[in-house]
């Protein structure tokens, strides 16, 4: 899976067949950006479950809205299993780094005169295990 701006592309292999599923996410509305920015400024800038709950209760749910879905397979409905696989993979990435849910909606896109939060102001909640090199933490005597 790759994320390029507001486009998520996933290559799904099943046996000898390969399909490419694409999901386009709509940009976040300005009023939602303003509401979320207000919640993120201050003492609590980490994207926690409590921050998500507060943002949602304030009427600014950060969940992405789809602008389009497509797949290269022969299923013409757009509800194929390849798109579903990309949804699951995207959810896994958002679990690893919740900022992705905002980033994919252009929340962090810096434009002139924008009041958006910079990515540097939002530290990650955790580090994915596959991002760590065991050799950095363990040594083996020879």
How would you describe this protein?
The protein is of the alpha+beta class. 29% of the residues lie in helices and 18% in strands. It is built from four helices and four strands, in the order E-E-E-H-H-E-H-H. The chain has helices at 30-40, 49-57, 81-96, 99-103, and strands spanning 2-4, 7-14, 17-25, 66-71. Strands 1-2-3-4 form a four-stranded antiparallel sheet, with helices on one face. 21% of the residues are buried. Mean pLDDT is 78; it is low at 110-122.
What are the SSEs and their pairings?
Elements: E1 2-4, E2 7-14, E3 17-25, H1 30-40, H2 49-57, E4 66-71, H3 81-96, H4 99-103
The quaternary state of the protein chains shown equals single chain
Uncertain regions spanning at least 5 consecutive residues: 110-122
SSE pattern, N- to C-terminal: EEEHHEHH
Radius of gyration: 18 Å
Question: Main beta sheet, described?
Answer: 4 strands, antiparallel
Instruction: Kindly estimate the percentage of residues that lie in beta strands according to DSSP.
Output: 15-25%
Mass-distribution shape: flat
Overall structural class, as computed from helix and strand content, comes to alpha+beta
**Overall helicity:** 25-40%
Work out the helix count: 4
**How would you state the average pLDDT, rounded?**
78
For the largest sheet, list the strands in their spatial order. Answer: 1-2-3-4
| Total number of beta strands | 4
Cα distance, first to last residue? 40 Å
């Amino acid at each position: 899976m790759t994320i390029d701006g507001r486009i998520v592309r996933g290559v799904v292999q099943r046996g000898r067949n390969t399909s490419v599923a694409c999901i386009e996410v709509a940009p976040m509305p300005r009023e939602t950006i303003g509401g979320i920015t207000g919640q993120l400024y201050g003492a609590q800038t980490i994207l926690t479950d409590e921050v998500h709950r507060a943002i949602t209760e304030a009427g600014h749910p950060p969940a992405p809205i789809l602008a389009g879905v497509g797949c290269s397979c022969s299923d013409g409905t757009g509800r194929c299993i390849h798109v579903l696989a990309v949804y699951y993979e995207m959810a896994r990435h958002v679990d690893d780094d919740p900022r992705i849910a905002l980033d994919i909606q252009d929340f962090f896109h810096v434009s002139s005169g924008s009041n958006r939060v910079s990515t540097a102001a939002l530290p990650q909640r955790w580090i994915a295990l596959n991002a760590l090199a065991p050799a950095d933490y363990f040594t083996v005597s020879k």
